[in-house]
Design a protein that fits this description.
two-stranded antiparallel ribbon, alpha/beta, single chain, 8 helices, 260 residues
Amino acid sequence: MDLGLTGRVALITGGSEGIGRATARALAREGARVAICARRPDVLTEAAAAIKAETGAEVLAVPGDVMRPEEIERMVTTVARELGTITILVNNAGTSAAAPFESVDDAAWQADLDLKLMAAVRTTRLVIPGMKAAGGGRIVNVTNIGAKQPGASSLPTTVSRAAGIALTKAMSKDLARYNIRVNAVCIGLIKSAQIERMARRRFPDLPLEQAWARMAEGIPLGRIGEAEEAADVITFLVSDRASYVTGTAVNIDGGTSGVV
């Protein structure tokens, strides 16, 4: 199946590991020209080189911190100059921050909103003019299943991610007239460096595979997802095959969430 991604320029934030890296690899395999952004230059450069070696595609590593507006502007400008007009954006930057309400101070709230909400707002704002000029674009905001069904001790992440879903729906309404589609994915337990660290903390005496299995006990499909499985859904959403899909939030969670 031709996904219609050949030659398109894609920017992926949080692209050095996990879902971001897997998405960059998937898009590169489909012929996209890919730029990945993250804070650690060494890890980012290694990821770009590995994806290029595996796929033969053009992959640009642009280090930067999406919590700093001037860094976002520099990254977007660099990608547009080096690869061309950005018509695919995957807002993937973020890390888990989960605590009881009373333990979260103003600084923690602000930092989480800057990383997970405002980074997406600022990056999207900068790429929209180019998408309009190109006749359309595709944006995916990566959130988590707690955005739809927050649990105890899940702050500030669940609020920031819920805002990301609201942002997705509102933008999809505003931008549809320009053929810019905006969707979200809501991530459950997916293997990544962050989830691996969580597994080792929770089950320090178990080999990693056994720790994965213990963490998966509450997942209906009975296992933790692979980053490539999330990447495949994201790749579909930014492809021509999803040309009538906008304003939706897709769960990628093995059936964990209690809401659709």
